[in-house]
Structure formats: structure tokens, C-alpha cells
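Hello,

I think I submitted the MGD job twice by accident. Can you confirm which output corresponds to this input? Input:
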Amino acid sequence: MNAPTRIDRRHSVCPHDCPSTCALDIEVIDGRAIGRVHGSQDNSYTAGVICAKVARYAERIHHPERLLYPLKRMGPKGAGQFRRISWEEALELTAEKFLDAERREGSEAVWPYYYAGTMGLVMRDGINRLRHAKKYSGEFTTICTNMAWTGWIAGTGRLAGADPREMAKSDCVVIWGTNAVNTQVNVMTHATRARKERGAKIIVVDIYDNATMRQADLALLVKPGTDGALACAVMHVLFRDRLADWEYLEKYTDCPRELEAHLATRDPAWAAAITGLSVEEIEAFARLVGTTKRTFFRLGYGFGRQRNGVVNMHAASCIAAVTGAWQYEGGGAFHNNGAIYHWRKSLIEGLDSRNPAVRQLDQSQIGRVLTGDAEALLDGPPVTAMLIQNTNPVSVAPEQDKVKAGFAREDLFVCVHEQFMTETALMADVVIPATMFMEHDDLYQGGGHQHVMLGPKLIGPPGECRSNHEVICALAERVGAEHPGFRMSPREIIDWTLRESGWGTLEDLEARKFLDVQPPFREAHYLDGFAYPDKKFRFKPDWTKVRAPNAGAMGPWQSMPALPDYWPAIEEATDEQPFRLATSPARQFLNSSFNETPTSLAKERRPEVMIHPDDAVVLGVEQGDWVRLSNRRGAVLIRARLFKGVRRGVLIAESIWPNAYFPDGRGINTLTGADQVAPFGGAAFHDNRVALERVGPELPGEVTPAERRELALV
Ligand SMILES: Nc1nc2c(c(=O)[nH]1)N[C@H]1C(S)=C(S)[C@@H](COP(=O)(O)OP(=O)(O)OC[C@H]3O[C@@H](n4cnc5c(=O)[nH]c(N)nc54)[C@H](O)[C@@H]3O)O[C@H]1N2
Ligand SMILES: Nc1nc2c(c(=O)[nH]1)N[C@H]1C(S)=C(S)[C@@H](COP(=O)(O)OP(=O)(O)OC[C@H]3O[C@@H](n4cnc5c(=O)[nH]c(N)nc54)[C@H](O)[C@@H]3O)O[C@H]1N2
Ligand code: SF4
Ligand SMILES: [Mo]
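Support: Only one job matched these inputs. Its output is below.
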């Protein structure tokens, strides 16, 4: 006989690495299982809408392949042979290896490595407390935000902008370099509301005709890495046609006359030749934003992932300062609200123990670091021991061949704390099982909006899963790390952090679920000036000082243009490598998360590279043929999809598929580079010059994905 089922609706927050940070309303069945997941109707940004992959989260949290017990490697690295061990043994072994590495090479030989698999502040960033307490190597987190944030901050001086809910009140929404339908669906909620209620126009700037572009009234399909030219020509037209707001420019910006003079030669014909757009398209875009005061620029991460991405982001952000759109409700620009939260993170991250002299290794250069590249190691000792939480570098990091070679090193000890047997976990010596967000308490902030949010523990974890915090504290004890944070519960840490940051208490937040911390209109719109000492928006930033005033600049920063421009620093096509490949995000995956769920895999079908039919004809490539993409970093076998919505010479491979879905186990990041983008680092995932060669309809001795998973080869 079935017991009666009780379904409670409980509040939570989506922890995934997504600017939407949705407030969730979750069905909890009999206090122990998850049912349907809904977007919260009470939260004004989420507004009841979430993406499909999280709506079916029951599939991920109750997945039969979740890791449930600690494991120890038995066979060779990567062979997938593990034996179940106790938590005590897993922790003892890891601690012993860390102490051993420290004894031999010094504390910097240990590299705790993490990213944003969960965006909860306690579970994501707690690993830094262990790092700082022990003086382990630092992590310069470059894999995601460096280009976009640097480009944005260059102009405004601060990582904040107009209230993104104001998109619903604008007359023109420019969605630039973000495939929001895939990556942050709530942008579309507010933008389409403006269209429905006010007849607003939606403009999309992207490099392929994706789901977001298909919603556009004006679709601007640019060549990858050419947005700077488009922005310059738009501003040229604004000055030329007297659509620039000179009163605003004189009051709020640093050098408008110099900008105008500089742009005199950057006309639409010049930009058309660079971007691939027509002069008419550029004129139409400029006219629209020049005559629509309430124009909202929603600038994404994607167009920053080019080697000139910082310059392009800055150039795009300059347009709102030329039109003066910032002065109007529904006008201005937005990228991310990181700066509004003023967190005191010393308890979570152990910042009081941090020694700035300890080296900071570049996260994106993990392949170089682990293969002993002296420059990447900053001339310090090799890395011989790692703890990895919330990230899957063997899949997501650039220069994958190097990453794999590094993880294959016999003298490297790796403990991976994971929810699934990822490619990275497969390479580990010890694998320990992690909780999911509904199984622990955490605190969140909305990057793409303005809420401080609580995600409480709703159900118990399966098997022997433990949270990141539990693991960090248990290791701290065994390696002799001292900090009050190791003796506190997540709830105590949350309460302290809220109080110290000026956001009330845990009790308040628990009662209210989330706090709307939107700054006042004048502040968000910079009406009392931008966030530089002279209060002026910078058309001409000092690139060496935007992000790291003391660290200096990196990458080829010396050739960066002083004013907005087209900066040809990208991997331009050559005769030998005539294609430019971008690895844009797939809708059903979130980086490599969800690429373990059957419905996401079925909906995405198989890895494919999109190619223009005219390019395909020249190469004799037919629909579904295998092709070999290659560059100096490596080669990848993938099937071709003929698609008119990409420009000639451009390839798009939506990502990130498990490496096991590629015939020889080489995933798409075999082709992407880890060279530091100027001036503050980062990986240019969408900027890859490649050659393409037809293989044919079948591969000799093809192994099916199912067989590969079975073999658990990497
Ligand atoms: N479904 C899904 N959602 C996700 C993710 C995912 O992988 N899948 N990833 C999450 C993460 S970690 C992040 S950081 C965010 C990122 O989300 P976004 O801000 O959307 O950034 P990207 O996803 O990198 O790319 C966005 C778009 O930029 C385009 N693009 C690439 N190069 C150029 C260029 O030179 N010019 C222009 N105009 N466009 C260009 C790409 O083709 C893509 O369509 O999304 C998050 N949400
Ligand atoms: N080709 C290509 N590569 C890319 C990108 C691209 O656009 N194209 N985008 C890049 C970007 S923007 C980013 S941000 C990176 C992201 O790359 P990753 O940070 O590696 O993101 P995910 O693949 O989502 O991996 C997060 C992992 O964390 C685990 N996890 C989730 N929650 C927890 C937890 O509470 N505890 C523990 N221990 N583990 C947890 C998940 O199971 C998952 O395996 O990828 C980058 N790589
Ligand atoms: S849109 Fe982003 S934040 Fe919202 S539920 Fe989906 S992954 Fe999570
Ligand atoms: Mo990201």
C-alpha cells in the first residue's frame, strides 16, 4: 500500500553559474524528494520564469549516477577503476598528500582549484579560507568574467548599472553578445514585456542566428570580434547626425570632443567592411538608438570572449554615454551588479589570513601549470597536490590536450569533490561525493539583478554526500589550518556575513526569502557622476589601472587602442586556417553541468559544428559528415551541420558536450587557447582560428557515445 504523499512548496535559489540566479519555488515530496521546480512568482526579476533544464531538476538531483561514496583510484589514472573507501580514509589520505607536498616543495605546491558550479557564497568560496590559512597557491579566476567586467568597468568605473527590470520600461532593448534565450532566460521576460506593453524594439547583436536573434526586430549578425567597429560607426553617426547629447557629454564624460574627432574616419562604410554588416543596417541601428531616449543596452559576456573583447565591451558601453540614455528610466546600460552587494567575505574566504606574496596561478592556464610551464608557474615550484570543487577543468578549460597531460602526471595527487563522475573526477586519485543545493544551506547574490537570497537546505543528501563546507573544515583540521570559520556552521557564517555586510540577519532573510537591494535610481544611472574620482565616464580609460592598479597589465596590452576602436588582436583567419570557430553555449547544458542528464542529452542530440552551406560546398562537406577541425593546439572530430544562420568563414560548435561524445575523446576545448587576454587576463573561448577538413559520412571504427561511457575513457 502506498503511503499518502505530502507535497510542500519550499523556497530556494538556483545555484548554477548563470546571471539569472532565479528564485525558485520547489515541490518537496514527503520531506525527502524533489518534484517539479518552478520560478518564484514573488521575485520581481524571476517573475515566475525559469529555464527548462532547472524546471526538471528532479532528474539531476535524483540521478542514478550521482556519486554517493568516497572512492579511491585503483587502476591507472583516468581508467575509471575505483574502490569505495570511508570518509575517514579519503580525508586522511588527502591531508597526508597535502602535508607531504608542503614538506617537499613548500605550501605553494598545493593548489586548491574551484569555480562556480555552485554560486553559493559559502560553498563556492569557502575553499579560499583553507587556501589562505595554509598559504597554498592562489587562483587567479580568469575563465569567465575578466574580459566583460574589465571592459565594462573601464567606462563606468564600477560593476553596476541600470536596474535590469527597467528593460520592461524601455522603448528599445539592445541585447548584445548574450544568447539570453539559452543563457539567462529572464532577460527575455523583461525585454519581451517592453515589446508587448510599449511596442519596444528588440535589437540583437550576435555572430549566429541563435534563439535570441530569432526574437529580434533588428538582427545584427556581425563577424566574431568586430563589435568595436560596429560601436564606433554607431557613435560616428550619432555625432554626424546631431543625435549625441552634448549637454550630457560635457557634464558626464572625459573627452567627448576627442572622441568625436577620433570617430570622424570610423564611418558605416569602414565598419561594414570589418563587421560584414551593410551600411544600411549600421545606419538603421544608429538611428534607432539615437532617436530612442529610453534605449537599454543589455551587454553580455559572449562578445568579451575574443582577444579584443575588452575593447569591444568598452566600445559598446560608450554608446549610452553618447546618447545620454542613462538619464531616462528604461534607458542606460547593464552588464552585472557585482558591486552593489558590498559583501564582507573575510569569514567565508579567510581574507584576514591572506598573504599577498603567495603566487596566484591562472585558472585558465591549468594545462600549462600542470605540465610544468615555468611562466605559468610564475617561476615557482610545481603543483603536486590539488583539491577540486565546483569545476570540471578536463572538460571546460582551454588547451585540453595539455590539461589532460597534466592530470595524467603520476607525481600529481588530485582529490575531486563532485556530484558526478566528470572527466576531471575520472582523472582523480580520490573522489568524494558532494551535496546539491537543496541539500545544504547557502547565500546567493543575483549577478544579473539585485537580490540577496537564501537557499535553505530542503532535503537530506543521498548516500554519504557531504557539502563543500564540511569537506573544507574536515581537511583544515587534518592539515592544521586555523580560522574561526572552520568551527562554524554554514548558517552561522551566513548570519555573520549578512550582519557585517549590512544586510540584516539570517532570521530576517529566512522570513523574507530574498532582499531587493536595488540602489536608488540616481545612483544606478550614475546621475551624480560615474565611479571615478572626477565622476566622468571614461571614453579613454587607463587600461593598466582598470582592474589591477598594482599588478600591472597582462597580455598584449601595449597595443590596446586609447579610444574605442576596432582592435585587430583576434585570431584572424589565414589561408591554412580559414575559419573562425566560436564555442557558444548550448541551451540544455550549463557549461558541463546537465550534460549528464538524459533529457538534456537527447534534446541537444549530438555534438555538431555549424557551417555555412556555401563553405560546405567548397569543401565537399555534406549534412552530417564528420569533419576534422584543427589548429596548433590540437584537433577535434565532429559532425557538420549546414546552417545559413552563420556567416561564411565562421563556425559555431554549441558546447559543452562531454569529451566522451567525441570519437577520440577530444572535446571542443582541445581547440581553445589559454593565452591571457589584455589587459586583465581571461580565455577567448569564441576566438579560434581553425582548419576544417572533410572526413566523410562514417568514421573508421567509430565508437558510440554509449560505448565510450561504458569504457569510461577520457
Ligand atoms: N544554457 C546555458 N546557459 C548558460 C551557460 C551555458 O553554458 N548554457 N553558461 C553560463 C555561464 S558560465 C555564463 S558566463 C553565461 C554566459 O552567457 P552569455 O552572456 O550569453 O555569454 P556567452 O554564452 O559566452 O555567449 C553569448 C553569445 O555571444 C556570442 N558571441 C561570441 N563571440 C561574439 C562576438 O565577437 N560578437 C558578438 N556580438 N557575439 C559574440 C555567442 O555566439 C553567443 O551566442 O551563461 C550562463 N548560462
Ligand atoms: N568551449 C567553451 N568552454 C567554456 C565556455 C564556453 O563558452 N565554451 N565557458 C567558460 C565559462 S564562462 C565558464 S564559467 C566555465 C565553467 O566551467 P565549470 O566551472 O567547470 O562549470 P560546470 O561545467 O558547470 O562545472 C561545475 C561542476 O561543479 C559541480 N558542482 C556543482 N555544485 C557543486 C557543489 O556544491 N559542490 C561540489 N563539490 N561540486 C559542485 C558540478 O557537478 C559540475 O561538474 O567554462 C568555460 N568553458
Ligand atoms: S535561468 Fe539560470 S538561474 Fe534561472 S533556473 Fe535556469 S540556470 Fe538557474
Ligand atoms: Mo561563465
